[in-house]
Amino acid sequence: MSSSDGLDRPADALVRAAVALTAALENPDKIADSDLRTVIAAAVRLYAAKADNGMRAPLPPDSGGVTITDAMLLATDLLYALNVQLFELSMWQAMTGNCIAPHQRVDAPQS
To answer: What contacts 24+ positions apart, CB below 8 Å, involve 82-88?
Structure first.
């Protein structure tokens, strides 16, 4: 099959990666740490690019199964890896206004 039949689109690869990551939840060692770090870095960069273009809902309405603990672990490790303190994050949000406004929140009341 050629790439013109639509099977090699980036979106298809993304779906396959999501399926593989979900399957690995049963046995996390199936995914090499270095491969997971590569996926996380790419996902963070893609999210930032899409957020710059207006997307402000990072998860599906049901949170995609992500727990508060999952989010806190990732956020903590990302900030640590980049040597960013929570205070610096807060200051950046205040200076740039780059935070999710109440009406953009996934859990905002629907009018």
So the answer is: none
The tokens for 18 are 């999501």
Q: Which of 17-31, 77-91, 95-109 has the lowest mean pLDDT?
A: 95-109
**Residue 56 near residue 104, CB atoms below 8 Å:** yes
Q: Which domain holds residue 73?
A: 32-104
Q: How many of the other CB atoms lie within 10 Å of CB of 33? A: 9
Count of domains observed in the chain: 1
How many Å apart are CA 78 and CA 71, to the nearest integer? 10
Model pTM score: 0.72
Q: Is the dihedral of CA 59, 64, 68, 69 positive or negative?
A: negative
